[in-house]
Amino acid sequence: MQRSLRLPLSLTGAAALALANTPIQPVAAQEKDGSAADLGVMEINLKDAVQFNWGFQGALQGAGTPNQAGIGAFLPIAVGENSVWFIDALANANFADRDGESSIVNTDVAGTTISTSTRLGYRWLNGDRSWMYGVNAGYDSRPMNTGDADTSVNVFDKRDVFFSQVAAGLEAVSDTWNFNAYALVPIGDDEHRLNSQYEAGALDTYGLDVGYSITPDLNAFVGYYYHSGDVGEADGSGVKGRLAYHISNGLTLGANLSYDEAFDTRFTADIKYRFGSNGYGAPSKKEPAVMPAIQALSATPANRDVRVGDGCFYVNGVYKCFDVKTEPSGGICDGTFC
User: Fold this and answer.
1) Predicted confidence band at 234 (pLDDT cuts at 50, 70, 90)?
2) Is residue 28 predicted with pLDDT exceeding 60?
3) DSSP class of residue 229?
4) What is the pLDDT of residues 279-331, one digit of tens each?
5) Nearest 5 degrees, angle CA 136-CA 183-CA 49?
6) Looking at the domain that runs over 6-320, which CATH code has it been given?
7) So which residues are the signal peptide here (predicted)?
8) Of 62, 60, 111, the residue nearest 308 (C-alpha)
9) What's the CA gap between 240 and 208, in Å, rounded?
10) Per-residue buried b or exposed e for 109-143, using 16+ beta carbons within 10 Å of the residue's own CB
11) Is pLDDT above 50 for 117?
């Protein structure tokens, strides 16, 4: 399958690096009196602030992503005076799509499978600890069971398939701003036949999310992404928005809205709860406030799902779905049907 990788990857990486190095003066920092030293930020020992935390997460189905719930953990493996190496791992149970509402466009995801995601990363603070910068990379897997199509087409020969990807991300976080550039690149067999009518592909996705802290507990994000794949039917751009509200004690609720030509408009919601220590990994409103740049050192990296979309078979130079009742000589793949 042909992919247009160089342009979106270059744009994403260049944008993220430019943002990370731009001397933006956070609005919140301008409004505060005193320097970082006056606020006590320089006195924080990162070995106390950055500690192991774990918890639960869940999300409703979205654009190529399933209904899911699972467990995750953040493990610092080397904490320095101003930096941290870490591993973050997730395991989610993926559930069936809502009846008649396919998360991958045409075919309903069925049954329950277990997906995984792992990130190895390095994060560091700037001189006055007003910004956190980070880089991470890892591997994600997604087995997928399939059921009926939510189109008018009857399907048979339903199959269970497996997708995987490698991923990389760049981060920059201050009191007010949050930038996240990412790349999700399928590996191995990235296209599979799902049933008698459709085949599916994992999506190459490259994006940039920009967040702004409306209040200390409410963050708004907007994002752009380019994806390709979906057996040739999903090449193009998309936009998304997100609101995240930190309730207390590590509990965060999120609402997300996305649009692109392949998946149209998709709304999803998510929830995350993290058990931490010292009010850093799982901050509580009862604890003293901790600067977002410090909190971000032990935050869970975003954009972890293997995104999948399905389309019709590629036959005689075009993508086409066949009705097995009216086109028995369609001649798809191995000739055992259509």
Assistant:
1) confident
2) no
3) -
4) 444 445 455 456 889 999 999 999 999 999 998 865 555 555 544 443 433 43
5) 25
6) 2.40.160.160
7) 1-20
8) 62
9) 10
10) bbeebebbbbbebebbbeeebbbbbbbbebebbbb
11) yes
Report DSSP letters for 46-107, one per residue: HHHHS--EEEEEEE---SS--EEEEEEEEEEEEE-SSEEEEEEEEEEEEEPPPTT--TTSSE
Computed over its alpha carbons, how large is the radius of gyration of the chain? Answer: 22
What letter represents residue 246's amino acid?
A: H
Select from 108, 90, 112 the least CA-distant residue to 99. Answer: 108
CB 204 within 8 A of CB 225: no
Q: Please report, for residues 185, 312, 326, 331, the alpha-carbon distance to residue 104 in angstroms, rounded to integers and kept in the order given.
A: 17, 12, 26, 25
Over residues 185-212, the mean pLDDT reads: 94
Contacts of 110 (CB under 8 A, 6+ apart): 96, 97, 145, 146, 147, 158
- DSSP secondary structure, 14-29, as one string: HHHHHHHHS----HHH
- Side chain identity at residue 97, one-letter code: D
Burial class, 275, CB count within 10 angstroms (exposed 0-12 / middle 13-18 / buried 19+):
middle
For residue 152, name the pLDDT band (cuts at 50, 70, 90).
confident
Max CA distance (Å), the chain: 78
- DSSP, residue by residue, 195-218: SSSEEEEEPEEEEEEEEEESSSSE
Residue that the structure tokens 């036949």 belong to: 193
What integer pLDDT is reported at residue 14 of this predicted model? 47
Which pLDDT belongs to residue 299? 94
Confidence tier at 250 by pLDDT (50, 70, 90)? confident
Q: Helix (H, G, I), strand (E, B), or coil: what is residue 284?
A: coil
- Name the β-bridge partners of 275: 54
Structure tokens at 166: 């490698």
Identify the bridge partners of residue 227 per DSSP, sorted by sequence position: 205, 236
Instruction: Answer for the pair 50, 297: CB distance below 8 angstroms, yes or no.
Output: yes
Token duo for residue 174: 């201050």
